[in-house]
Design a protein that fits this description.
The protein is α+β, with helices and mostly antiparallel strands. It contains 8 helices and 16 strands. The longest helix is centred in the first third of the chain and has 29 residues.
């Protein structure tokens, strides 16, 4: 056994020992008195733990969570994604333990939210024993308890081993499930339930090597496998010839929230007041990632100026429901001249950066 293998196994054992200690404390934790929490407050605490981006959705909001009220965006987005259900949310009522557990399992994507129902809680609690089997799941939950339950579930998930495979030439250049172009040389991955743009640290159990990838596709669909890595990501932590490895996962958050190299993300979203991108041109983009633009109305990419002064004149018209994709080849400042059908144009600057190995969240080898 190599030193790296030994260190990895030691880390896994330490995580398991920490879980055992947490489990030993469960009776005291779940029965401990503490400040109660409302359904609104409890959900927002649980949601904050996953650093997931919230976008506008075409979803009818809960009638008792009107626009402008606290947590409206998060609660409506979660309803659209199946994390929350029902006709009313009852935001000011006490949060029962069964709903807190269900929301934890759904936000942590232990399975597709559509198949995570209240009736599944007994099975889920046996798989992840956050509370004793005899616990009263209808009782109100305390504020401190939500944090402890979330920490315990995250500890269980971090200690789980997964079978990880790779995909490469057969899919290179195809569209992913989210509409991107699959690039086997980028640090990306396919997962069945994790949201698009989730950053995931994948650690090879056998050698201790890790890589950080962005989820941009669905899969794998071979039974017993939990993640497909791009060729670049897989070969960063294992020989290609190995094909399948055992790995640990650590969910880091949403790349839209965390941004390149762990920095907050900011976008240039409007061409004019009436023409706006669905996401926009970021102020910073990691080398190896692609810029993807779409808008609510047609626009034209007139030219791209590269960091070395080269100008690419393209006059590429992008209609509604179409996308413009651009993959930077070098670091530095890129300037995009974006136009409207009415002749107006705007220059947008984008800094392409290389995330170093000391960065908090480098895309690539960890």
């Amino acid at each position: 056994m190599t030193r790296a293998q030994s260190d990895t196994r030691m880390e896994v054992n330490m995580r398991l020992n920490a879980i055992v200690l947490l489990l030993a404390c469960i009776p005291q934790l779940v029965w401990a008195e503490g400040e109660g929490v409302t359904r609104r407050e409890g959900f927002l605490m649980i949601w904050a733990g996953i650093s997931r981006a919230v976008t506008d959705v075409a979803e009818e909001p809960f009638a008792d969570v009107p626009e402008g009220s606290a947590g409206f965006g998060e609660i409506t987005f979660a309803k659209a994604r199946g994390v929350l259900d029902g006709d009313l949310f009852h935001p000011e009522e006490p949060l029962p333990l069964n709903d807190a557990l269900l929301w934890l399992f759904r936000t942590r994507n232990v399975a597709d939210p559509e198949v995570l129902r209240s009736d599944d809680l007994p099975l889920l609690v046996r798989r992840y024993p956050l509370v004793p089997p005899e616990e009263n799941l209808s009782r109100a939950v305390a504020r401190e308890e939500i944090l402890r339950l979330a920490q315990q579930l995250d500890a269980f998930l971090a200690a789980e081993e997964h079978r990880v495979s790779l995909y490469a030439e057969d899919f290179h250049g195809d569209h992913t499930a989210f509409g991107e172009i699959f690039d086997m040389h980028a640090f990306t991955a396919a997962h069945r339930t994790l949201p698009q743009n989730t950053l995931l640290r994948v650690t090879n159990v056998d050698n201790g090597k890790s890589v950080i990838v962005r989820i941009n596709d669905r899969g794998p669909y071979i039974p017993g496998r939990d993640l497909d890595l791009s060729l670049a990501a897989f070969t960063a932590i294992a020989p290609r010839s190995q094909g399948v490895i055992r790995a640990l996962f650590e969910r880091l958050g949403d790349s839209v929230v965390i941004g390149p190299c762990g920095l907050p993300e900011r976008y240039q979203k409007r061409i004019t007041r009436d023409i706006r991108f669905h996401r926009g041109v970021p102020h910073a983009l990691p080398l190896g990632e692609s810029l993807v633009l779409s808008a609510n109305r047609p626009f034209v990419v007139r030219r791209v100026r590269y960091p070395d002064g080269t100008v690419w004149r393209i006059e590429d018209w992008v209609l509604e429901k179409e996308r413009f994709t651009f993959r930077p080849s070098i670091v530095g400042t890129y300037i995009f001249r974006i136009g409207t059908p009415y002749g107006r144009s705007r220059d947008m600057r984008m800094e392409v950066v290389r995330c170093s190995g000391t960065s908090p969240l480098p895309l690539g080898e960890g």
